[in-house]
Design a protein that fits this description.
The chain is an alpha+beta fold. The protein is built from six helices and six strands. It is elongated and about 60 Å long.
Length: about 180
């Protein structure tokens, strides 16, 4: 069967809340392979991705973009097939009719660990760039900035009612990045 016949149009899929009434991510996608579309609070398409474990990817996106992950639509497949996954993603993006921010200008923020240096306050940045600081002291500044950013993310998610357990990778904080373990 041609791949285009395997693509369910985005408009035909049911929107699922990113967080259910108990504050949990949709567990039904744990371990599932497929394509997912993430929508903002106003139901505008923010990002389309694919994964070998949709649930884990959804967790990562939630911490990277906590204000933009409100709804999702998912199409799962039985076996990994990169071409099919890319076809579904591309079809959905075209179906939306315009550039999707998370697959265009904001792609890096959706797909990579949070760069702590880019999110530092002016004071943190000044401290970090102080020529008097040794490497260990710079690492401490990075780690403290990462902790502040992590706390801000968790505060936003707490306001949204998140009860899901999230664990950030402590080793990444030393290198200036923030992501889930």
């Amino acid at each position: 069967m041609p791949a285009e016949n395997l693509v369910t149009p985005l408009a035909n899929l049911e929107a699922v809340p990113y967080l259910n009434t108990e504050g949990m991510l949709p567990q039904q996608f744990e371990g599932d392979i497929g394509v997912y579309a993430i929508f903002g609070e106003d139901q505008s398409l923010q990002y389309v991705g694919y994964s070998r474990d949709i649930f884990l990817s959804l967790k990562q996106h939630l911490v990277r973009q906590p204000r933009l992950c409100h709804w999702l639509k998912v199409q799962t497949i039985d076996r990994p097939n990169r071409q099919l996954l890319e076809d579904i993603r591309n079809t959905w993006i075209q179906e939306d009719g315009g550039p999707v921010p998370g697959n265009h200008t904001e792609q890096y923020q959706w797909e990579h660990a949070i760069d702590v240096k880019a999110a530092m306050t002016a004071e943190e940045s000044e401290q970090y760039q102080d020529p008097q600081l040794d490497e260990r002291s710079q690492q401490k500044v990075l780690k403290n900035a990462a902790r502040r950013i992590e706390a801000e993310i968790l505060a936003v998610l707490d306001q949204r009612g998140l009860k899901e357990s999230l664990r950030f990778n402590p080793k990444l904080k030393d290198t200036g990045f923030l992501d889930l373990k």
